[in-house]
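Batch manifest, entry 17 of 40.
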Amino acid sequence: MRSDEIDYKIIGHSMQLVEVTLDPGETVVAEAGAMNYMEDGIAFETKMGDGSDINQGLMGKLFSAGKRMLTGESAFMTHFSNQQHQRRTVAFAAPYPGSIISVDLAAIGGGVTCQKDAFLCAALGTKIDITFNKRLGSGFFGGEGFILERLEGDGLAFLHAGGTVIEKELNGEILRVDTGCLVGFSDGIDYDIELTKGLKSMIFGGEGLFIATLSGHGKVWLQSLPFSRLADRIIQHAPIHGGKNQGE
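Output type: structure tokens
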């Protein structure tokens, strides 16, 4: 199934949203709760599955939904369709401050792998699936790098990231990244999680026990402020429950 050819505009700087313009009959698929606003004429429906395979049976949809539920994701996705005779827009925003990345899947070989919380929305026809790090042992302890999301198709997909987005092109080099700072990577990139070397570095380094290693040929997208890092800092500086606030 070919993806719908949607148009878009990314609005804002540090807290962005993407406004998608749909021609009559076009549809965009999004994670539940991502919609910000939509014009009259846009109809939305919550469905089990991404709609990329029109011949997918009930068992296939249940299997796909089951994988998403096991990883903490919603079993359902929301489909927004333009049912008018004129072009209509619908906008989506990330749940935390950061940037939105537009990825033309056809231009990068048809697929991108990303952190499971990075996917925001995509043109109808994009296959959205859950995948796992091939090394289960390091994956279980590697945290954010264990469960990944796989997007395949020939249309536009949108990812969101915390802070500033950095795009790197690898041509046989090796790049080592904090597991939380990785947003996604294109086909041609080999991804693995490895243990930090040195006992002292593990205990006192502050960078975590595991690090993501990327190599090969393709694109890599990174984020400067993972939400998990931001949440940890907020929790560390939050007043103790039942205690007095500063200044009291």
